[in-house]
Every structure is written in C-alpha cells, then in structure tokens.
C-alpha cells in the first residue's frame, strides 16, 4: 500500500503528520511531505487512520 | 543548420515554408504529397508506423506517442482529438510557426491521429490572443472543407492566456467549460477527457511529425537523428545569437553546430538555458560537449523539454534573469495546490532578496530545501519545473548569486531582459 495526497484538496490541517509521523512530515507551510515508498504491513493501520482523519479527505490509499 | 545530414535531408517539417507567407492546400500538397487514404492506410496501421518510428511528444514531456494513441484507441466511447497549439512557454515559437505558416501539415497530422484512434472530431486549441494563428487555421480548415479533404470534423477552441493554459488537464477542463487549471490525476484524459470521452491531447509539432510518418514511414523518419532518439525536431533559439528563431535539427546535433548556424559567438555566451522556463541553466563550457539528444542532455542534468535553447550573453546578469523568470512562474501558479502557491512564491521572493543583497544568511539553505521538497507535490508539474529551473540556476551561477547576496545588485541588474523574458517583478 502507498499513501498519496491530492494537493488540490489539501488545506494543511496537519492531522496526517501527527497520526502517521513515520511516513508523513510537514513542509514550512504545513503541507504534507509523504514518503513515496510501500508502507510496511505493520504500519498500514496508521496510514488508514491518517487518511480517515483528514478533514478534506485529501489522502488516498493506493493498493499496489 | 546544415541542409543535409549524414543520412537524410532536412528540413522536413519546415520544407513548406515560403518566406513568411501562409502555405495553402495546393502548395502543401506540392511539397508533401497527399496523406494516404484510409483504405490504404487504416488507423491501426498508423499507430504501428508511429511506434516503429519512435515518435515522442514535442510539447515538453516527451511521452511515446504510440502509447498515447493506443490508450485512447482502447477506450469504449468515441474519442476526441485535441491539437494543442497553445504554446504557453514564452520563449518558444515553433508551434505558432507551424500553425501560422504550415497549418495544413498540422491539420493533416490531426486527421491522421483521429483516424488512428477512431475519433470523429478534432478540436484545435490555440491561445485566444493568437490572432494570426487562429486566422491561418480557420482559413486552412475552410479550404479543406471545400476540397472534401478529411472525414473528420474540425473545430477551434480559444484557450485562456496563462502559462498553464496548455497543460493537458487544464486544457481539457477549459474545453469542458471549466477553469484553466490542471486537475488531479487520475483520471487521465486518455481515459476520461472532453465530455468524459477518451481524449488525445497532442502537441501540434507532434501531429506535424505524425503527418509525415504516415506518408513516408518509420524508416524514412529514422534516417536522421540517433538510433536511440530518431528523427528531427523543431527548436527555438533565442538570446546571444545573430539569427534567433525556429530551426529544424536532427536529434543528436552538437550544440556548437546549432549555435553556429544561428551565428552565435561562443565567447559571448555566459550560460545556456535548455528546455525553456521549466528547463536547465548550464554553464557555457557545455557548448563544446553537449549535443541535442536526451542522452547527452541527461548527462548534464538537463532535458530537451519543448526545444527552447537560450544563449545568455555575457553582458546580461544571470541572477536578474533568473529572478524575472522565477517571479513570472510563481505568478503563473494555478493557485490551487498549497506547496506550489507557497513554495514558488517563497522561492521567487528569496531570489529577489538575494539580487537586492538583503537576504537572510540562511537563504541558500532555504532554497535548497524548497527546491528539493517541491517536486511531485502539485496536481501538475509546475512545482517540479520551477524547482528544477531554480536549482540549476543556483548551481550554474553560484558565484554570481553569492556576489549579489553579499553586495546587492550589479550593473546588469537594471537592464531589460537580454533573452526576451516577459517575467517582470510586479
């Protein structure tokens, strides 16, 4: 699984970086910088939680 | 440019030029002959020819044209072809030249592409402000209608003005009545574009190349260029050359020959911008080593892009030129993705502060971080282009940026752009 941000929807609430810091950090303006790598199975639950918590539903989970 | 290369003759696309006048249908057919009719050259065969020729898109991204044709052809609904003549890159003139003076070559290519994908209609998209382009195409479409030249329906679309107007998803959005802004992918326009139909958006030079491949075949196409990068391409030369303008070159032509053909004086050149505003600044020392192939350009961290080659004269200030273009690009952000809105503006402001000599100490560290973090974080490639352009400027003109950061504007900073850049700090 990978996680991807739709930057048109994203409004820099920053919940994702708080819920999934292993994969997501924020830039100088609060927008997410996401690792472009497959998420290990053990962390998938965090990815789901981050995606579900996004107030603008900007995060998309992609199965590979 | 040498009229003849080792293996084939140029010009090809520009063979029909006649000193600035518009080529009519008869002149066009005199130079190139007719497009083979569908019973001799069915659509599926056109895709095969394009694939064997190895044609790639000439709008900047260089995507293999046959793959795009196949993707559109595979859709369930009747597709639409969009001939993209918007040419948003301010330094490029090759697309407009084709449209203005050789419209039948473009329309031929569009008709062949429509046949290849099974599209009943072609929309020719041009900037609303490009009056000469529009008149030439309207006139050519009317000529073809009278001559019953095509089995496709041509129409015109007046696109909006901005830098991102010709971006594929932005163009499709406008044609559908929406904003001139890129959209998030997926869906790809090849799956769902104009009216939800599979849509082939193809640059007008790509279509012109396709028109000739459909006539002469892939072996002919590959007679010039390199084995890995066959064919010829149009480039726009600007800056410190005596004869700026559009040239047709074989891929792999040494940069030195290209500049020589335009009477450029190497000793007068401070740097080269290749690929336009989304391109790369390279030091003048590459002139003797670089050829215009993707392979050679990649070795220097550059790419062909839309074929713009700018020679920056020694009298110009590389910092001021970079500041102008960065400001223009920041201004042209579609204002919809946060990283692009904030990142491109921050980069442009930081560069301006350097030019003025009042940037904070950490400015170069900031710029390095922003240019590394920005790519891939917009819906389109605008942030990638800006980041790459600025990173190559900082690398190529490191000492000039350093001088400005310490001492402020140089004598050249106040001059107008030496490369005809429209970018102005407002």
Report what the structure shows.
The complex is a heterodimer of chains A (64) and B (426). Chain A has 64 residues and is an alpha+beta fold. Helix content of chain A is 23%, strand content 22%. Chain A has two helices and four strands. In chain B, strands 6-5-9-7-8 form a five-stranded mixed β-sheet. With 426 residues, chain B is of the alpha/beta class. In chain B, helix 2 (43-53) runs antiparallel to helix 3 and helix 12 (338-356) runs antiparallel to helix 13 (363-373). Chain B is globular, with a radius of gyration of 21 Å. Mean pLDDT of chain B is 94; it is low at 1-7. Chain B folds into three domains: 13-221, NADH-ubiquinone oxidoreductase 51kDa subunit (Rossmann fold, 3-Layer(aba) Sandwich); 232-313, Roll (Ubiquitin-like (UB roll)), CATH 3.10.20.600; 318-414, de novo design (two linked rop proteins), CATH 1.20.1440.230. In chain B, strand 2, helix 6 and strand 3 (153-159) form a beta-alpha-beta unit. Chain B has 15 helices and nine strands. Helices cover 41% and strands 13% of the residues of chain B. Chain A binds chain B through residues 5-12, 27-31, 33, 36, and chain B through 183-184, 336-340, 342-343, 346, 369-370, 373, 376-379.
């Amino acid at each position: 699984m990978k996680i991807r941000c739709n930057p048109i929807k994203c409004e820099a609430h920053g919940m994702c970086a708080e819920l999934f810091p292993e994969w997501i950090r924020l830039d100088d303006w609060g927008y997410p910088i996401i690792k472009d790598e497959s998420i290990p199975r053990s962390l998938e639950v965090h990815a789901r939680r981050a995606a579900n918590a996004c107030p603008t539903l900007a995060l998309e989970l992609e199965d590979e | 440019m040498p009229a003849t290369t080792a293996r084939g003759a140029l010009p090809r696309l520009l063979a029909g030029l006649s000193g600035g006048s518009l080529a009519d249908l008869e002149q066009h057919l005199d130079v190139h002959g007719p497009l083979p009719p569908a019973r001799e050259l069915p659509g599926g065969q056109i895709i095969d020819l394009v694939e064997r020729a190895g044609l790639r898109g000439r709008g900047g991204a260089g995507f293999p044209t046959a793959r795009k044709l196949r993707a559109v052809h595979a859709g369930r609904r009747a597709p639409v072809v969009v001939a993209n003549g918007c040419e948003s890159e301010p330094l490029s003139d090759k697309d407009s030249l084709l449209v203005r003076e050789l419209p039948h070559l473009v329309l031929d290519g569009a008709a062949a592409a429509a046949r290849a994908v099974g599209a009943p209609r072609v929309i020719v998209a041009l900037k609303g402000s490009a009056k000469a382009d529009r008149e030439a195409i309207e006139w050519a479409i009317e000529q073809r209608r009278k001559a019953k030249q095509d089995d496709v329906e041509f129409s015109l679309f007046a696109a909006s003005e901005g830098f991102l107007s010709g971006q594929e998803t932005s163009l499709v959005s406008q044609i559908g009545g929406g904003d001139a802004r890129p959209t998030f992918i997926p869906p790809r326009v090849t799956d769902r574009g104009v009216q939800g139909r599979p849509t082939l958006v193809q640059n007008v030079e790509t279509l012109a190349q396709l028109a000739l491949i459909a006539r002469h075949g892939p072996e002919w196409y590959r007679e010039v260029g390199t084995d890995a990068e066959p064919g010829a391409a149009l480039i726009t030369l600007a800056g410190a050359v005596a004869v700026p303008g559009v040239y047709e070159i074989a891929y792999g032509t040494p940069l030195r020959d290209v500049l020589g053909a335009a009477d450029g004086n190497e000793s007068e050149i401070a740097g080269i911008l290749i690929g336009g505003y989304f391109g790369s600044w390279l030091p003048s020392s590459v002139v003797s080593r670089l050829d215009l192939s993707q392979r050679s350009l990649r070795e220097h961290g550059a790419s062909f892009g839309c074929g713009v080659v700018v020679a920056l004269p020694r009298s110009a200030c590389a910092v001021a030129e970079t500041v102008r273009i960065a400001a223009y690009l920041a201004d042209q952000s579609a204002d919809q993705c946060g990283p692009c809105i904030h990142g491109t503006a921050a980069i442009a402001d930081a560069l301006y502060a350097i030019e003025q000599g009042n940037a904070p100490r950490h400015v170069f560290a900031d710029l390095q971080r922003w240019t590394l973090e920005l790519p891939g974080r917009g819906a389109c490639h605008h942030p990638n282009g800006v980041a790459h352009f600025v990173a190559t400027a900082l690398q190529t003109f490191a000492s000039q940026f350093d001088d400005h950061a310490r001492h402020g504007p140089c004598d050249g900073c106040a001059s107008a752009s030496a490369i005809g850049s429209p970018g102005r700090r407002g």
